[in-house]
């Protein structure tokens, strides 16, 4: 069976061209201002907004699934202790538990997987923006739109250029290698940082999973994907990196809103922690995005006066030698 992604390329092209026409109608300059064609840059940014609005119901399901997985952590822990050393039985019991409680461990990655076709479509679309390309009217583009997009720049770096572009490719795009490498390099670093922060934000709020499979996915999201971007970022067109960074910033804001509106449930282990294990002097940390929230000041301890025991009934009064001693006369 011949599987074609043309429908994705048509959809991405249609969204880009629609937004570009909208910004042109509003009055956003089509030409370069400060070396930047803002109409095309805004078209890429609002491609992200369009996709995220469409995927918002999926994001809500992701949060609900994560809450369900958190609620199952005590049962998962019990299964791990019960079937310690028997990995096959443990996996079978855990899958039955997830099926019974209608929790899906893979739901946490579903929004990211659904965005992969969008990423591939934009990557293919921007990769085609070469003045030497003969198929300019493919996927619903006009010749004028194609030429305008192929000349679009961000601070004089073409959005179709990439860190690993050859000299011939840059010459056709009317750019210099040093400028493209500087802009693309900065954007790749920002892309890696924001990718790391989106995963860290969620883990700081929800904690590390007890399930080994879930913990492995968390580690992959936190360290593996950002590390892979250091290499793969060299082949991404600048326009694709703009999309990725914008998507990460959107995710950071959306997660912060959802986590504040629907905070993670307090686990029973934390709720019934014995008082003896708590340290009243140790200030509590309020976890922020970077895990360096300000520590809450310790509660002030009021000084109490020492208790003085009263005289026992029937006891003789004890004279204070200091008070009973007569004052010396001065001769």
**Coarse morphology:** elongated
Largest sheet: 2 strands, antiparallel
Query: What structural class do the secondary elements suggest?
Result: mainly alpha
Question: Approximately how much beta-strand content do the residues carry?
Answer: under 5%
Q: Calculate Rg over CA atoms.
A: 32 Å
Q: Widest sheet: strand order?
A: 1-2
Kindly, what is the distance between the CA atoms of the first and last residues, rounded to a whole number of angstroms? Answer: 126 Å
| Helix-residue proportion | 55-70%
Count of beta strands: 2
Order of helices and strands: HHHHHHHEEHHHHHH
Low-confidence stretches: 268-288, 290-296
Annotation field: number of helices = 13
- What's the pLDDT, averaged over the residues? 80
Q: In words, what does this structure look like?
A:
About 25% of the residues are buried. This protein has a two-stranded antiparallel ribbon with strand order 1-2. It contains 13 helices and two strands. Mean pLDDT is about 80; it is low at about 270-290 and about 290-295. Strand 1 (about 155) and strand 2 (about 155-160) form a beta hairpin. With about 325 residues, it is mainly α.
Topology diagram in text:
Layout: H1 6-26, H2 38-54, H3 56-71, H4 73-82, H5 87-101, H6 110-127, H7 143-150, E1 153-154, E2 157-158, H8 167-173, H9 177-206, H10 212-232, H11 238-261, H12 268-271, H13 321-324
Antiparallel strand pairs: 1-2
Helix pairs in contact: 1-2, 1-6, 2-11, 4-5, 6-11, 9-10, 9-11
């Amino acid at each position: 069976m011949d599987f074609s992604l043309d429908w994705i390329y048509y959809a991405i092209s249609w969204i880009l061209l629609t937004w570009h026409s909208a910004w042109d109608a509003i009055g956003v300059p089509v030409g370069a201002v400060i070396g930047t064609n803002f109409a095309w840059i805004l078209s890429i940014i609002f491609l992200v907004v369009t996709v995220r609005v469409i995927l918002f119901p999926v994001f809500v399901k992701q949060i609900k699934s994560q809450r369900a997985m958190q609620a199952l952590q005590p049962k998962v822990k019990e299964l791990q202790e019960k079937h310690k050393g028997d990995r096959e039985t443990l996996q079978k019991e855990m899958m039955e538990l997830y099926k019974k409680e209608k929790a899906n461990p893979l739901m946490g990655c579903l929004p990211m997987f659904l965005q992969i076709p969008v990423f591939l479509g934009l990557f293919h679309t921007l990769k085609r923006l070469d003045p030497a390309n003969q198929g300019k009217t493919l996927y619903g583009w006009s010749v004028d739109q194609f030429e305008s997009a192929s000349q679009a720049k961000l601070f004089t770096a073409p959005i179709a250029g990439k860190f690993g572009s050859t000299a011939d490719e840059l010459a056709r795009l009317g750019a210099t290698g040093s400028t493209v490498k500087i802009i693309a390099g900065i954007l790749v670093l920002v892309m890696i940082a924001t990718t790391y922060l989106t995963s860290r934000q969620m883990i700081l709020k929800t904690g590390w999973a007890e399930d080994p499979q879930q913990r492995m996915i968390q580690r992959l999201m936190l360290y593996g994907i950002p590390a892979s971007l250091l290499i793969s970022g060299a082949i991404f067109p600048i326009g694709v990196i703009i999309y990725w960074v914008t998507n990460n910033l959107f995710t950071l804001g959306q997660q912060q809103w959802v986590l504040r509106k629907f905070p993670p449930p307090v686990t029973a282990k934390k709720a019934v922690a014995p008082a003896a294990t708590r340290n009243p002097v140790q200030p509590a940390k309020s976890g922020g995005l970077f895990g360096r929230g300000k520590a809450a000041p310790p509660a002030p301890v009021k000084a109490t006066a020492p208790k003085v025991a009263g005289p026992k009934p029937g006891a003789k009064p004890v004279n204070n030698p200091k008070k009973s001693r007569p004052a010396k006369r001065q001769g």
